[in-house]
Automatic annotation (TrEMBL):
Span of domain Glutamate/phenylalanine/leucine/valine/L-tryptophan dehydrogenase C-terminal: 146-346
Gene3D superfamilies in UniProt: Leucine Dehydrogenase, chain A, domain 1 (3.40.50.10860), NAD(P)-binding Rossmann-like Domain (3.40.50.720)
Binding site for NAD(+): G180, L181, G182, A183, V184, G185
EC identifiers of the protein: 1.4.1.9
Name of the protein in its database record: Leucine dehydrogenase
Positions of the catalytic residues: K76 (proton donor/acceptor)
Keyword NAD: yes
Origin species: Pseudonocardia alni
């Protein structure tokens, strides 16, 4: 496979004929400490797409750790499955986790992983029996449990900061569209509903939509309406690449803040959003609550309350990012990247 240049430190790629899975680990930076990032397991169009995703996500983790002030570097694992996980069977999945653990061991502690799309705390429990280089074990296994609630809390703090920057007096009465109703998206929806938002939801799983609509009185729209449905706040909590420059030109929104990694499909989309006056909370700032939860509890020994307070402070970080972007006439992505760069170089 042909791979483009990358500014990261290491890419590990392994194929296992027995399971048909490709294993990719991207270590982007160990400048602030050992690299860390979740394990994503899903079907990809090609091994090259899996490598590209791991590298993008690892770079975003470097920025996330730096902006959040955590003593860790950025990395990511991607397991490109031969079929959806539900179709693989328990024995095949167990073998995949064993191979993944062996790959982690080869890196000797320079990279530690946790749950991500397609994996969960129970999987981290299995990995922890095979390698010490794991975050995010279940509470029953002595870990801090799912990072989903803290990710959602941080995203909601980002929403609050975004609507304030856009000139709104709080979330009450605003139309908030949540895309993706997994563990994070569903919790964000609940927080928005509790704050008085007029909730709009969408998900590829109709059952999830129906459950959230019943629980919270949300309006359900089709997945194709995500970028065309008029609303005040768009909250992408599915996979990345939603907003291209072309999509950014017509988005009928005032604020975008969500949990999805690599939300922008191309860098120019951020400039289009800035030009149109749409407040954009960069994803690597908005979704840092999960990293704060795992690193704070398992590395730094913080209490649950300390983790929650640090996660809510994501809103303060974004308020500063928005101010810097306005002052210097840049996009919020550039302002947030500059903040991360200052941390990585010891200037912050």
């Amino acid at each position: 496979m042909a791979l483009p240049e990358w500014d990261g430190e290491l890419t590990s790629v392994r194929y296992d004929r027995g399971t048909g899975a490709w294993f990719v680990i991207g270590v982007h930076s160990t400048r602030l400490g050992p690299a860390s990032g979740g394990t994503r397991a899903m079907v990809y169009p090609s091994p090259g797409d899996a490598v590209a995703d791991a590298r993008r996500l690892a770079g975003a983790m470097t920025l996330k750790m730096a902006v959040a002030g955590l003593p860790m570097g950025g990395g990511k694992s991607v397991i490109a499955l031969p079929a959806p996980r539900a179709e693989l069977g328990e024995a095949t999945w167990r073998r995949i986790l064993e191979i993944h653990a062996a790959n982690l061991e080869l890196l000797g502690g320079n990279y530690t992983t946790g749950p991500d799309v397609g994996t969960c705390s129970a999987d981290m429990d299995v990995l922890a029996g095979l390698t010490p280089h794991v975050f995010g074990r279940s509470v029953a296994a002595g870990g801090p449990g799912s990072s989903g609630p803290m990710t959602a809390l941080g995203v909601f703090a980002a929403i609050r900061a975004g609507v304030a920057e856009a000139g709104f007096d709080g979330v009450d009465g605003l139309r908030v569209l949540v895309q993706g109703l997994g563990a994070v998206g569903a919790d964000v929806a609940r927080l928005a509903a509790d704050a008085g938002a007029k909730l709009i939801v969408t998900d590829v799983d109709p059952a999830r939509c129906a459950a959230v609509a019943d629980e919270l009185g949300a309006e359900v729209v089709g997945t194709g309406a995500v970028t065309t449905r008029e609303c005040d706040v768009l909250v992408p909590c599915a996979t990345g690449g939603l907003i291209t420059a072309e999509v950014a030109e017509t988005l009928p929104i005032a604020v975008v803040a969500g949990a999805a990694n690599n939300l922008l499909a191309d860098p120019y989309a951020a400039e289009v959003l800035r030009r149109r006056g749409i407040v954009h909370a960069p994803d690597f700032v908005a979704n840092a609550g999960g990293a704060i939860h795992l690193v704070g509890r398992e590395v730094l020994g913080w209490s649950a309350d300390a983790v929650a307070d640090r996660t809510r402070a994501i809103g303060d970080t974004l308020t500063g990012v928005f101010a810097d972007a306005r002052t210097h006439g840049t996009t919020t992505v550039t302002a947030a990247q500059d903040l991360a760069a200052r941390t990585l170089t010891g200037e912050h």
